[in-house]
Amino acid sequence: MKFALSTSLTTSDVLFLSFFKSETLNAKMKSALGAKTAKQVEARFKSKDFEGDEGQTLTLFPEGSKWKRVVLLGRGKNAEAVPQATEFLGAKISDCAKAAKATSITILTDEADFSELAYGFVLGTYEFKRYKAQDKKTPSLEKVTFVLPTVKKGHCEQLTWIESFEHVSPSVRDLINTCAGDLNPMDMAKIAEQVGKKSGFKVTVLDLKKLRKLGCHALAGVGQGASSEPCMVILEYRHKSKAKEPNIAFIGKGITFDTGGLNLKPTGHIETMNQDMTGAAIVLGTLQTLAENKVPGYFLGVMACAENAISDRAQHPGDVVKAYNGKTIEVNNTDAEGRVVLADALSYTEKNYKPKRMIDIATLTGAVTVALGYTITGVMGTEQKFLDCVLDCAKRVHERMWPLPLDEDFVKLCKGNCSDLKNTTDGVRAGAIMGAAFLKHFVEKTPWVHLDVGGTAWVEHPTPSTKYGATTAGLRTLIELAKHYAD
Ligand code: BES
Ligand code: MN
Ligand code: ZN
Q1: Helix 278-292 crosses helix 153-177 at what angle (to 10 degrees)?
Q2: Where in the chain is the domain with CATH 3.40.630.10?
Q3: Is 276 near ligand 1, meaning CB less than 6 Å away?
Q4: Does residue 454 line the site of ligand 1, with CB under 6 A?
Q5: For this structure, is 265 an active site residue?
Q6: Which of 300, 303, 305, 426 could form a disulfide with 249 if both were Cys (CB 3.0 to 4.6 A apart)?
Q7: Is residue 302 within 8 Å of residue 345, measured between CB atoms?
Q8: What percent of the chain shows pLDDT beyond 70?
């Protein structure tokens, strides 16, 4: 698919115009549409066929015009719009384009809406087809033109990243949506190697033998019940930089399936646990994007991959393991496995690469949904400046994130009884914060942020922009962050 920016309404199969409640054609639209078509559209407003109600669409087939169809989209009352309204509008446009089997479309938008609408459009075009026998046809849409009042350099730059998202995000979503029977930790490593080779970054796989030798017994322990071995995958990308220390290290939870271990998850909570490698997939997608766009700097990705399975070899609740940094962890709940694998990934990364800052992304807790629901990612960390920067980046790329307090009392509550630490603590309740508090014991001095996408990585019920499964929550923010800290 090709994207373009223009200041004039170009010829295409379908033209999309959107209106808030009670808005009608403005002078600019009228002149761009031409008198005849404008009149036809206005007639539909007059007859109240279309009033701009939220979700309302009206398709016209204006004769003698340069568009086969003109689609009017309603946005409802502006003051009552939900935060994702513009994203959803973009997704709706992709649905309409698909239904019309259009090969080219033109979307009239403005400065304020352009990028969010475009991201929504891209998200909406995605379909997960891997397990569908039919319907493998490639979509017919070839060209999408966004029409703006003026086209500035900034818009062209934004479009580059939107194009990149259109290229990368479907493969990230495919990877996350793939069922666990078709994707184990070593498959993740192989896929990372392929992506690295194609996009231009170095991939190193630390297999079980190496992990044991290094002392990464926390990660090894989580994976010991599965027949596929755990691994840590290191992605290294460098462009125009001789720096010794990475500008940022991105670290992702890569549990290819989370049964809960011997603390087995019940029906209703286990079925979609193939999503538990989202963090690792997002990290891979981030590095791919940076490499393909030749972002200058030195960036590190670390994927902590394991399958949290049950078997006679699986870790027992109460088992004690020694992590890479020498701290011992009592795994009193095998279902709190994400923090255990990230413990090794964080301390290994900090000690061996000394990154200037670290950010991890993980479907770490279900508890984060109690605080923030299914549409807002929880953000915690150790340095206000870095935290603010992450939240700022999220805003710029239209991802919803909100900070939770990572106060020292929570950190102290992770102390173990017979060991240095325990992976869960009774009676604290603040589940998302406790997940982050545990992780803090594995970060020494590097500014660090933790993204809990336990609520946002996956949708149970379809939304206009995510019809099934993986949402790519966090991907745009991590890319924006890398751009911010690029050389
Ligand atoms: N992978 C889950 C968290 C999760 C749940 C992500 C639902 C996405 C959707 C994680 O490993 C987990 O099981 N967390 C537990 C921790 C608890 C045992 C302390 C949770 O939050 O329930
Ligand atoms: Mn779990
Ligand atoms: Zn998990």
Answers
A1: 140
A2: 167-484
A3: yes
A4: yes
A5: yes
A6: 300
A7: yes
A8: 99
Find tokens 């071995």 and name the residue: 229
Q: Are 110 and 28 in contact (CB under 8 A)?
A: no
Confidence (pTM)? 0.98
Gap between the Cα atoms of 364 and 338, Å rounded: 6
Q: pLDDT for 206-233, tens place per residue?
A: 999 999 999 999 999 999 999 999 999 9
| Calpha distance 102→253 (Å, rounded) | 39
Contact 9, 146 (CB under 8 A): no
pLDDT in tens, 386-414: 999 999 999 999 999 999 999 999 999 99
- Cα(46)–Cα(62) distance, rounded to whole angstroms? 17
How many whole angstroms from 337 Cα to the centroid of ligand 2?
5
Residue ranges of the chain that CATH labels 3.40.220.10: 2-151
Q: Rounded to an integer, what distance in angstroms lies between the CA atom of residue 309 and that of residue 258?
A: 7
Task: List the alpha helices (DSSP H) in 384-464.
Answer: 384-396, 408-412, 431-440
CA distance 331 to 329: 6
Question: Is 68 a catalytic site residue?
Answer: no
**pLDDT, position 136:** 63
As a whole number of angstroms, the distance between CA 326 and CA 344 comes to 10
CATH class of domain segment(s) 167-484: alpha beta
Strand residues in 328-430 grouped as ranges (E)? 328-331, 358-362, 377-381, 401-403, 421-422
* Ligand 1 site, residue 369, Cβ cutoff 6 A: no
**CB contact at 8 A, 145 and 105:** yes
Which residue owns the Cα nearest ligand 1 atom 22? Answer: 366
Taking a C-beta distance cutoff of 8 angstroms, is the pair 254, 327 a contact?
Answer: no
Residues 406/437, Cβ–Cβ less than 8 Å: yes
196: pLDDT strictly greater than 90: yes
Phi, psi of 169 (to 5 degrees): -60, -35
* 276-285 average pLDDT score: 99
Is residue 134 predicted with pLDDT exceeding 90? no
List strands edge to edge, sheet with 401-403. 202-206, 231-239, 297-308, 248-258, 358-362, 448-452, 377-381, 401-403
DSSP state of 240: S
